[in-house]
Amino acid sequence: MAADETRGAADEIRGTADEIRGTAQGTAPVPLSVLDLVTVSSGHTATEALRTSVELSRLAEARGFHRYWVAEHHSMPGVASSSPAVILAHLAAHTTRIRLGSGGVMLPNHAPLIIAEQFGTLEALAPGRIDLGLGRAPGTDGATAAALRRTDHLNEGADDFPEQLAELTRFLDDDFPDRHPYRRIHAVPGPVQATSPGGVQSPRRPPLWLLGSSGFSARLAAVLGLPFAFAHHFSARNTIPALDLYRESFLPSAVLDRPYALIGVSALATDEEKEARRQVEAAALGMVRLRTGRPGLIPAPEEAEAYEFTPMEREFADSWNANVIHGTADEVRSGLDDLQKRTGADELMITSNAPGMDVRLRSYELIADAYGLPAA
């Protein structure tokens, strides 16, 4: 589709600013949200990790976090979030108010019609609570991306992202032009049910978000007037340039009259600063192994303490940990406040990827307490 048609499809989005913008709770400077990678640590199973996600989603809802997103990853033993739509359906059954969404679904990995059907189903399960965050990266290595897409031409998926986005939007809104080859194809559940005899289907559908770690999605989100989520937790050096680009290029749309940007931030609060360092070091070892082609379960702190880092690994781990806000609750609150001031983010989405499941739950409790969020 041409750029003007992409823009036209976005202008007809039925999501509203009220579904996108959150309200800060307690003394937090902006709304706080949760990004869950469903991490699987040494000595634990995917079943346990998913149960922890249910506990965490219920905790987040009870304590006033605004939204809860899960991210698509593939072929990573330590990350059990390969099927965001399946996980979100499960979480929807265990929560009642918190917004649930993908942070994100990697659009080039899927046919747009499939995503429209999946998230139309989620919207029917949890009306008014679903976000559809989209990314253009594969969420994995090249070989796995080729297996997912059944093609070796991986750049085509990323280059075609605006056209794929326009097609997905048309399916969600059921508004292909009359002569379009997909005019008689409908994503169900979806708006077509409201136009069928006796149809009473709600016209609502999930708001679209664009995710990114560089300027491409920032500019596209701005041109389309969509909310933008930036992956500060693994691309910190690009955060401010990308957010500046988004704000400077933003064009008002039927969805938003002004920019709205959240950033993903890695943060871990513990009762004692020393324990935070232990947990963060273990997570860093997991990242070292992933980045050097040895993905596995997230190692336990004891394993990280016994591990002999090479000089290059040590440099990477230190660089990674420098972008993780960790320590006591007060230290984490101070770090989050400073980050929000420096970036001007409209929302902070916190991911706590400690190997200990109880440690992760405790971290969000401590952060909620530090900001005086509503009591459970």
3D architecture notes:
This protein is α/β, with parallel strands linked by helices. 45% of the residues lie in helices and 13% in strands. The chain has helices at 3-11, 17-20, 46-62, 84-92, 112-125, 142-149, 154-159, 161-173, 192-195, 215-224, 239-249, 273-291, 301-306, 311-321, 329-343, 357-370; strands at residues 32-36, 67-70, 99-106, 130-135, 208-212, 228-230, 261-269, 324-327, 347-351. It has an eight-stranded parallel barrel with strand order 1-2-3-4-5-6-7-9, surrounded by eight helices. The longest helix has 19 residues, at 273-291. The chain is globular. Residues 1-14 have low confidence and may be disordered.
Which short descriptors sum up this protein?
376 residues, alpha/beta, eight-stranded parallel beta barrel, 16 helices, 13% strand, globular, disordered N terminus
